[in-house]
Write a structure and sequence with these properties.
8-stranded mixed β-barrel; alpha/beta; globular; EAL domain-containing protein; 12 helices; binds ligand C2E; binds magnesium ion
Length: 284
Amino acid sequence: KAKSEGRSTYHFFEAGMDADLQSRRSIEAGLRLALQRAELRLVFQPLLGLGENRVTCVEALLRWDHEGRTISPVEFIPIAEETGLIAPIGEWVLREACKIAATWPGDVRVAVNLSPVQFKSRDLLSIVKSALQEARIPATRLELEITESLLLAENDTNLKVLHDLRAMGVRISMDDFGTGYSSLSYLRSFPFDKIKIDRSFMRDLTSRSDSQAIIRAVIGLGQSLGMSTAAEGVETEEQLEMVRALGASEVQGFLFSPPLPPAALASLLHTEAAKQQPERKKAS
Ligand code: C2E
Ligand code: MG
Ligand code: MG
Ligand code: MG
């Protein structure tokens, strides 16, 4: 009897399996093959240095072209993390981003997002080293973006890896700052090079004085801790002028540039380099 009951429970589950779970399953199955089918690609979104008035850094963002549509990382990264697929995918992102950055003019840095799951594998350090070596770019041109969840566990091994990466010359940024649970304490646990203020604060920056106060405070905090600050999600001139006035080091957002395919990003950098060349000659 128990057996048949078990079976009927199973059938009930199958019939009631919701669309969400089905789509998760199909994403998971597709994702397993995405690398070998070459369905993954990177787009690149520049960060404008407000003091320098040029692109100082470019963030690599993952895209998945699957069955005729492009799937957002917001949809598939969590599934990649749960299934462990983030390890090979994240390694591919690092190598590909460094390879492409090697073709850019000047010393523009490349920023790569790291999942906390990638810290679980012991060889993150050697993967980063070999990605840099293969691409022949110095460690100082690489920035790694991590989120607060990495430090949630106050995990000593994660901190050690962060310190080792930093000792190599790699820069470490705290991504989406302000969305976690105890953001402020994380700034004490590790000397980040950059704080990226989450774009949710940008949305109502011009209408809500509390958002403005928070951004002002975070930028001030960054300044006193020796960390640079980047404002994410800058979409309007008004927001740009406001974060400029508040003293942000960099801005990123659709106003300056959306994420671009590699060729378009390279041409943006070359155009900019050509404009700045004569000025530099004049000055010297
Ligand atoms: P993120 O690292 O905070 O990246 C910024 C996201 O904001 C990107 O979304 C970008 O397209 C979007 N964005 C940039 N400027 C604006 C703006 O002005 N307005 C608005 N509304 N959005 C803007 P995207 O590319 O969909 O990536 C979403 C998230 O997925 C990223 O957030 C990052 O957490 C994750 N992700 C992307 N690529 C990778 C990757 O290679 N590895 C890992 N682990 N995560 C990744
Ligand atoms: Mg990021
Ligand atoms: Mg971010
Ligand atoms: Mg974000």
